[in-house]
Design goal:
Elements (H helix, E strand, L loop, with lengths): L1 H12 L1 H7 L8 H5 L11 E12 L6 E11 L9 E7 L7 E13 L2 E6 L5 E5 L3 E7 L8 E10 L8 E2 L6 E11 L2 E8 L6 E14 L2 E15 L17 E10 L5 E3 L4 H10 L19 H4 L4 H15 L1 E2 L10 H7 L1 E2 L1 H14 L3 E7 L19 E8 L3 E5 L19 E4 L7 E4 L6 E11 L5 E10 L1 H12 L1 H9 L5 E8 L8 E10 L3 E2 L2 E4 L21 E2 L4 E10 L4 E5 L4 E4 L5 E9 L3 E10 L3 E2 L4 H17 L2 E5 L1
Helix pairs in contact: 6-8, 9-10
Length: 650
């Protein structure tokens, strides 16, 4: 009896090891065939039940082999598109990837019996271009309820990226396992992307895993990664490219050690990269060139003594005199050409701006960034190709930092276009070294609205409204108004669904004022019912609908910038109106004081007052805030739609 107790104790103490053995596999069970919904995502059209990868070097050929196995359950008609799979094979100058051992089966039930359809050769299609051959597998007899299993082995000599592994897909994944065997000859930088945690992250060493003849051999580092219950990646508003957040493992070859003792350094340090940038004809050789920009600025700018005023004048000069051609120009920049042509790409325009600042004694640096659609630049190791844009970092008296982009005439000094707001970049100091810096825009983008109402002779509520908008909140207004004033007015009218705009006037001047200010006169279209007016005081809607609808979001909510909204309303009651009923006041805060919404109203014999304030204090909210943000936005929508003041005509 004691022996059995010790055995049970051993099994329980090592249960985590045994539990990893009993994992999903390619066998299809009756339960998988009969299931009609995935309980962890009831809206899923399909689910990957089992996803397996194994990457290793072949002992005979030293080519990298990747074994792939996958099992998919089709849950509804929308999931039928997963009855086809595309496998890209890379074609290089001297080598190409190959595929073998393709196997596939489709399992379903007919009259209660399990039926299996297998993949024939005529259901394997091939397409080819200069860089890829696409292998397309069209699985047979796929229906709602089918379970698909398929596997293949890919062979490649392209090992710089080893073999990345995507745990997260566009549909949920129940179990994903990736195994990698890397010879000691190859050293990789390994990066885990995304916020989802690994359930298993193990490593070991296999001695003598590969032989190279004459007694030479290599040990292999063995890695095993497992992730379970992985939610689908579903795109939603307020985000950047999906590649920033899809949970995956990535590799970058760093060092190759030859059997003869030679060591080839593949990836570089930032010190190496800084040296390359310094001699780069499209970058380093375009920086700090006083002679190149001599006499470009007029004397009415160079003679300004106030530093901030002078910096703004230089920025405006570039905006006014050089037109952006909508290209980045990372590998084609010439300030000399820009000065001659009067227009050019983003690198040319912003490097000209940096040179003009430098020539006037300012501390200004080019800052390499990756735009929102391009994804986050990796910080694990230097990858110059991650950067596709440049802006300027300007310091004034070591007290204030400004980030500038002079490509868009509607941007005010210190504003960046939304596509540049991608959290951080690499500042390049030609005399010292480059360094990472957050794109920290301290100022809020604001919307301030003040409305003054009264009852007119036709028993309608009419108002004088002043709107002042700053920062990124103002960009669309500035551009639309400057491009076509008539179209802008029509667009503006749609922003006030319960009112008619009778007059409109813009008070701010130029294309890029720091605040875009306008005045409108409007008439409220809510009719009097008997002697009462049911008045919604939200003449302006901050959000037309709740942008957050997912059951679960695994990636951050990225607004790009901090925002603040302030709305005040005054209604003159006089002797004509009386307030019968007011909405309840409301205050709601996001966790950690990361935002708030406040609504209140009050009335006396002379005046009705309404106050609304909304603040989003972070440009980026981590995924843990998602449920709170969803409730927060729902509260704003509810206030906008259901806040009613009951007025009575005297």
């Amino acid at each position: 009896m004691k022996k059995y107790k010790l055995l049970l104790l051993f099994i329980l103490s090592n249960f985590h090891i045994y539990s990893q053995v009993f994992k999903p596999n390619m066998n299809v069970t009756k339960e998988e065939l009969s299931t009609t919904v995935y309980d962890k995502d009831t809206n899923a059209s399909a689910v990957i039940v089992y996803d397996y990868g194994n990457a290793f070097f072949n002992k005979e050929t030293w080519r990298l082999n990747i074994e792939i196995k996958q099992k998919i359950k089709i849950l509804n008609k929308d999931g039928l598109k997963y009855g086809q799979v595309e496998i890209p094979l890379l074609i290089g100058e001297n080598s190409r990837e190959t595929i073998r051992e393709i196997k596939a089966s489709v399992h379903h039930t007919v009259n209660g019996k399990s039926v299996i359809s297998t993949l024939n050769e005529d259901a394997i299609f091939k397409e080819q271009n200069e860089t890829y051959e696409i292998i397309r597998l069209a699985f047979p007899n796929v229906k709602v309820g089918s379970v698909i299993t398929y596997s293949y082995t890919k062979s490649t000599k392209f090992i710089n990226k080893f073999q990345p592994w995507y745990f997260q897909q566009d549909i949920p994944v129940s179990y994903s396992e990736y195994n990698a065997s890397i010879p000691g000859n190859y050293e990789y930088n390994i990066k885990l992307v995304g916020s989802l945690p690994l359930d298993v992250n193990k490593s070991d060493v296999e001695p003598n895993c590969l032989e190279a003849g004459r007694g030479a051999y290599a040990n292999c580092a063995i890695y095993k990664y497992v992730m379970t219950d992985i939610p689908a990646y579903k795109a939603e508003e307020y985000t950047t490219t999906r590649d920033n957040y899809l949970s995956r493992i990535e590799y970058e070859l760093s060092v190759v050690r030859q059997f003869n003792g030679a060591v080839d350094k593949i990836s570089k340090t930032w010190e190496d990269v800084d040296g390359e940038l310094r001699t780069d004809s499209d970058f380093g050789r375009q920086i700090n060139k006083k002679k190149l920009v001599k006499d470009v600025l007029p004397s009415n700018i160079t003679t300004i003594t106030d530093k901030l005023e002078k910096a703004k004048a230089i920025y405006q000069y570039v905006l006014d005199n050089y037109k952006w051609n909508n290209n980045s120009g990372r590998y084609d920049a010439s300030i000399k050409r820009l000065l001659a042509d009067g227009g050019g790409n983003a690198f040319e325009i912003n490097l000209l701006l940096q040179n003009l600042f430098y020539s006037e004694g300012f501390e200004a640096y080019p800052m390499l960034i990756s735009t929102r659609e391009n994804g986050h630049a990796t910080k694990v190791y230097p990858v110059l190709t991650d950067f596709n844009y440049v802006i300027v970092k300007l310091n004034i008296d070591d007290e204030q930092t400004y980030f500038l982009d002079a490509t868009d005439p509607y941007l005010s000094f210190g504003e960046l276009p939304l596509y540049c707001l991608n959290q951080y970049g690499r500042v390049y100091d030609i005399e010292y070294a480059s360094y990472w810096e957050d794109i920290d825009i301290k100022a809020y983008s604001t919307t301030q609205i003040g409305a003054k109402y009264k009852l007119n002779d036709s028993n309608q509520l009419e108002a004088d409204v002043t709107i002042a908008v700053s920062g990124n909140n103002s960009y669309l207004k500035k551009r639309k108004y400057s491009e076509n004033k008539s179209n802008y007015l029509e667009w503006l009218k749609n922003r006030y669904p319960t009112s008619s705009i009778t007059e409109h006037k813009v008070l701010s001047e130029g294309k890029n004022p720091e605040k875009f200010i306008e005045e409108i006169k409007l008439v409220n279209e809510q009719e009097m019912i008997g002697d009462k007016i049911y008045f919604n005081p939200f003449v302006y809607q901050f959000y037309s609908e709740n942008p957050f609808k997912l059951q679960q979001r695994t990636y951050p909510v990225d607004f790009g910038y901090k925002q603040a909204f302030l709305y005040t309303l005054e209604l003159e009651l006089g002797d004509n109106l009386k307030v019968v009923e007011l909405p309840e006041p409301t205050t709601m805060a996001l966790p950690n004081k990361a935002g708030m919404v406040t609504f209140s109203s009050s009335a006396n014999e002379k005046k009705l007052s309404v106050f609304v304030r909304i603040k989003l204090d972070k440009p980026v909210y981590e995924a843990g805030y998602y449920d709170a943000l969803k409730i927060f936005m729902a509260k704003i929508i509810d206030l906008q739609n259901n806040s009613i003041v009951v007025l009575e005509k005297q």
